[in-house]
Amino acid sequence: MAKALAKSSFTEVGHAPAKTFDLFPRPTAKTGLFGWITTVDHKKIGMMYGGFAILFFLIGGLEALMIRTQLIVPNNHFVSAQLYNELFTMHGTTMIFLAVMPLNAAFFNLLIPIQIGARDVAFPRLNTFSLWVWVVGAILLNVGWLSHFVPSWKFGGAPDVGWFGYAPLTSKVFTPDLSTDLWVLGIQILGLSSIVASLNFIVTIINMRAPGLTMMRLPVFTWMALVTSFLLILALPAIAIALIEVMFDRNFGTNFFEVSGGGQPILWQHLFWVFGHPEVYILILPPMGYVSEILPTFSRKPLFGYPIIVFSGVAIGFIGFGVWSHHMFTTGMGTIATAAFSIATMAIAVPTGVKIFNWIGTLWGGRIVTRTPMMFALGFIWMFMMGGMSGIMHSAAPADAQQQDSYFVIAHFHYVLIGGATFALLAAIHFWFPKFFGRLVPEFWGKLSFWIIFVGFNCTFFPMHFLGLNGMPRRTWTYDSNMGWNEGNMFATAGAYLLGVGIFTYFAVLVYTFFKGEKCGNDPWDGRTLEWSIPSPPPEHNFSAIPTVHARDAFWYEKTHKAEIAQEKAALIKAEESHGGIHMPDQSWYPFFSAVGLLIGAYNMAQLHHPVIIMGKDVLSSHMPLAITGGVMLLTSCYLWALEGPAGYHIHLDANGNPPDSHGGHY
Amino acid sequence: MTRTRSDHRKVYRFATALLAGLGLVLLSGCKLAEVFSLSGPQSTMVTDGPVAKSQWDLFMVTVYVTTFIFVVVGAVLAYAQIKFRAKSEADEHAEPAPEGHGNPFIEIGLIAASVALLVIIAIPTLRDIWYTHDVPEDEKGNAMEVVATGYQWWFKFEYPSETIKLPNNAGEIPLVTGNELVVPANTPIRVLLRTVDVIHSFWIPKLAGKVDMMPNRPNFLWFKADRPGYYYGQCAEYCGESHAIMRFRVIALSAADYVKWLDNQKQAARTVTADAVPTNEAPHAQFASLKLDERQALSGSAEFDANPLAAWKKMQDPEQNEKAEAVAAGRKLFQAKTCVSCHTVRGHEGIGVAGPDLTRVGARSTIAAGVLENTREHLHQWIKDPSHFKPGNKMWFGGYNTLQGEDWQPNPALTLNDQEIDSLVSYLHSLK
Known about the structure:
A: two-stranded antiparallel sheet, B: alpha+beta, 5-stranded mixed beta sheet, disordered N terminus
């Protein structure tokens, strides 16, 4: 401790932290349950995001398989209409908010600090807070499933208003169940988590870049993460407002969407899609980033047209805010508005096309090494092109009047979200798995899972184009056998099972690799960006010395200028040590405690007007006191969090960058 | 890059075998051509009206343009993938291609080409946005207006221009039907779209694309049937538990048939008199023993589907073998079991408006909003257990069951045995 104090440059220059308020001793465990729930390490947080997201991805997939099983034959009674509605609502909600978004968040956490040559995000404890708040939202959304098994919990099952929750179906008149209240609060809280995380990433990317890493040298993934973060902080307030309005309509007698009180249900649709359309780009821009990292690596060639890829990403983000009403072509907007949104939608196809041209340009003249991540990345380009083509078809508003809310639309967005986003995510998991777990996924099994997923996916969703053109509406629990949809549905369901087998294979192989996979070095793919320059798995402090970036593909430059870089590194390590070693942030209880407070508050808020019943007895006439308790816990934790200060400790490295004493003293 | 190439070949061999095997299974499992068939009664390709046709034609423009793009870009991509694939271990480790970061002329050229292709789609899109929006000016004089109202989960149709005089000079009301919209062919129909509860969407794929029925919003759409025909329609916006089975039919008739239909509709409900009854008719089947084969189409038997319009026309005529006593008993039950408080039978006792108007329910081809073909057996099963066919419907929740506190309890005033249901069926089927 004294040694650390003496060495700390902060103390020397008078930056000693003031005596802070400690209600609890700060957690120091690096492993075990408490180590994980109090961690501020962006890599551990990223892994937890990823783990939870994969869990929900599998749950959402199971929901999809139940949906497809119900539709395998006409007039089927595998599930009831009510359960079916819960399944498709939760399938959509889960896949968007609890699978793809947190998987992207996982990669933001894992990669952004390393790609920009930083040791953590700008606000490490806030990062922990984002994670646990996200978990709270996930719990609230899914707790309704339990009420199917616990009859005394009268939630009315899981949410059943659709992931889009169109008013006035969400009105208390039509869905009096608690499930809708829990859905409203669950989505609201997930939005809170995303806004907090996005602000954190924006500050991190703008302020914490290594020396020499100009904006136009940023890896494309980090660029796309930056654009996505801006989309999130601009789009989420719209849905936050809309959700608050629904909550007030349901609980406090307001009339935003209540038709009998003069409310306008169309307002919900505008607010929802002002969020919902940028959300589509929130889901797909990070995958475009992964692909833009993977293609150059396996083509052994820099990304073709880097500035244009970056600018088209920004353009997509920008135009993405101006096309929301193409989800509403059938709501009777009138000719002018329909025409305007139709043209804007066509316009957004241009920057998207530009990205595809540049990816092909990247392959052109390269040496394409078809490892599993590359297979998924190439699959992404093909499938995303398919989804893009049907997207252009939808931009023709009169044609869309036939396709909207039909299976054609289902085919379209699954080509974008599975063939696009999910393929890219599977590529990314495969690509960066060796970096964070130090083991290589076996090629044979990786490729096998790719082919099963690829075939299964196309068998499932390609026939849906035809089902839609043949007039099959979506969100339908059953269909009659004289509509000409029997064969298409049977085929699609068979494909869905195959897709399920593929996804199972993929993750089973990952689990195997985690325990038994072949160990690998720092740079198994001959990578181009900074994450490949550090050990696998990376040490807590990421870099023994913050690197200086000399070119766009920073690590590729380092590999081609070895002698010069080695000298520079040694000097940087020495300099850093002379400043008192590597400063790392302290762990904290409060982000987790405040999330627990939020969970208690929100869970009881949803049931505000219902009596508290324990063991069949009315204990309290309303949930208000419990809701207030949760709120107080949240605010108290935030306050104590502010009081405890960031604190931190130092890690000292020897001249080779190895830690002789990794337990730096606390001060 | 330390892996060997031998395991790649294994993967490809396995994948090929897998693909071939799967293809065989799927081919033998179902007729592949049927998977991609667009010949169903809700096909958007086989259209029967100018609105749906313009929408399909525009769709095909987008298909041609995007297919062209896909083929060209796909060909380049496929070529690049094959041509630049590392073919050996040495190849993988060969000196990478010269570093290059893009070519502005290629980029700008591709952007310009993309814009040009999109303009090809944009021009007919703009034309059709205006065309499909409302009845064209030169046809306005000829157009007919109807009001379609969405309910959870059925449709009410009103004919504001066809009024019926109420007895005792009590005023005029528009003609009302439910779940079957009968219109003259070759006449532009302007449908005013209304809803009493949540958002529904009005969609007749063969005649016109959908427009939503929004609360507090006066939406409308138009269509024209090129020829007499029987068309399927369906709600296309998620509207709650039984959204999947909120269906309707549109029947387009020749001018003469339409006038005949209209004249009959405007009459008060039909009453069966004893002398209309022929003697020695066969007794009706025992319904309790009937089993429903749900793999068969519920909404149209094979005979019905063979020529639905002719089958529909046949249903307009009174049935043979009507039993006046059974009909009269059914009419009494209709009142005693409180059916009258939700259903209108104009000229009889029914005055309710919460459920579909049943003044001519016997002449409709389906019941329960397009779910069941209107046969005696189906009607019997529907009255016996409506929640089996339409979960959450108001006849079950509110009629057969009433809310006691927080739970639904069976309504003691509304219990029906099979014989009573049989009488009700006779009554309802006499309403032609």
